[in-house]
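Please check this.
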Amino acid sequence: MMELKSFKKLFLMTKVINSQFELSDILQVFVDAIASEITQADLVGFFLKQPDGTFIGYKGNKMSIDITELLIDPQKDRFVRDILERRASDYIGDTSLDERIDDDKKLLMKIQSILGIPVIVNDSIFGVVFVHDFGKPMNLTREQIEVTEAFVNMVSVAIHNIQMFENTKNLVDKQQLLLDATKALSKSLSVREVLKTCFHYMKRATGSDEVGIHLYNEKDRTIEPYHISSVSVTEEEWKNRHREQIKLSIDKDKLFYEVVTEKKAIAISDVYADSRPDHRACEMFGIKSLLVIPLVAKDRVFGDVVIPTMHICREYEQGEMEFCQSIADVTATALANAIHTEHLDYSVNVRSMELQQANFKLEGLVKELEYLNELKSDFIATLSHELRTPITAVKGTVDILRKEVLGKLNDSQHDLLETAGKSIERLLNQVNELLDFAKMENGKFELMYSEFDFEELIQEAIHIVDSLVNKKKLELDVEISAGVDTTMRADRERILQILLNLLSNSIKFTPERGRITIKAYMEAGAMTIEVIDTGIGIPVEKQKNIFTKFYQVNNQINGTGLGLAISKQLIEMHGGTISFDSTEGEGSVFKFTVKK
């Protein structure tokens, strides 16, 4: 068991790590803390996993060796290979008795003892941490190793949160880009304007300078080059080569035939390993990889967007393809209207009416997406100080998409949005807890008192958790003592937060078809509330830490470990108390009081 002093040190360092939002900063604090505060080792290095399975030095404490010049190959180092295979830490107290260390590394770093710990993020190896001295054994204690392992786990959570944050930001950025593209396309009335706008936003979406746009000649069944942006060939040369040497016909080109006839995007990571592309044309332009996206509107193919990669092969991610397809779909709608205006011989009145209807649709889409623009603006404006606003904005966006306001979704899209919604909700709750904790730590937290009916508050809490209760088929009862005046004066939102936290914990740890009871009564002049469950209970050895910051009874349950700690502080700020009684295997009773 770690001493209380070690726990406090771990919590203090965790607080510092959670105040950082850059991976580089977090890992630097991490290695410095392990070296100076936990192990007193000469070297603590974080090695980042590479795509080829090797590990390259990324961050280390202050030392004479530049860790970024070091590369570890698990195939040559059995010690590292064992750590990766077992996905667990390993400690060699005397390297002269254990020959698993790579001899070259052992000689270079004068390693006599070494501790290695894998950093696992989202169930995958993200990196490896190594701790050792130069030319002398470390003699680490079991406690030092356990504290280091615990700290590695905390860093894994921090890295996971950064990844979630970056994914969320990328989602909002993509939505903003789609909004901008929609606005620009709604103002593009000619074919040339539409295609130039498409090119501009497709280039931003892919980060590529090589983007080509073709128009499809339905009568001749040919693909005709229209517009290109390239650093390797001019538009004139590109068109001349197509006209004189390539002459794309869907009946002779397997790739474009599949794109046009099946109306689907195709990504090819290696054009020469695939029989569909025209290898002669690819060689002529130096193309190694290819993404081709059809422009489809009203079930008709108007052309395609081609995004090649020159000189190197690359993989196209599914999310990238889907996002590019979204821009192409909006483009195709605008393109259909433009072609209709320029080429179809209808009367002026009919053409004007159709264009007006199309513009109304586009304007409606713009109005819907302007809400997302407001969320995006709030996100950027408050990014350095507040996290709740952008996360709430993303949640709103996902809810809009799930309700199919912007268009019908398929089952896969529904599943993705459902997963995103749950992840965002969990992240928002964690951020709210962390921000409340930070305000309390800084003494900037204030209660907002008002008069309200506590019985109504209980019903509101029940309504919020109703879906979770039904999912586990739990019984949820409310018992309010007769004659009790349920009017009280307190911070309503914070009392609701406390009650929801207790209810959520009971729901998490109560098996299906169990029972949860909320009791409210007066005791010693204070409103007293009990949340009673028939759950798994809390082990005796863990009960003493139940209100400790960052402590989790069950590490398999996602959370920050701050919920009960924050609840305790909120109750005490109200002048009340909170306590619990729990028997493992039988259930728990959490009780708090608030002076009326």
Remarks:
- The first strand starts at residue 43 and ends at 49.
- Residues 190 and 338 are 5 Å apart (CA to CA).
- The longest helix spans residues 142-186.
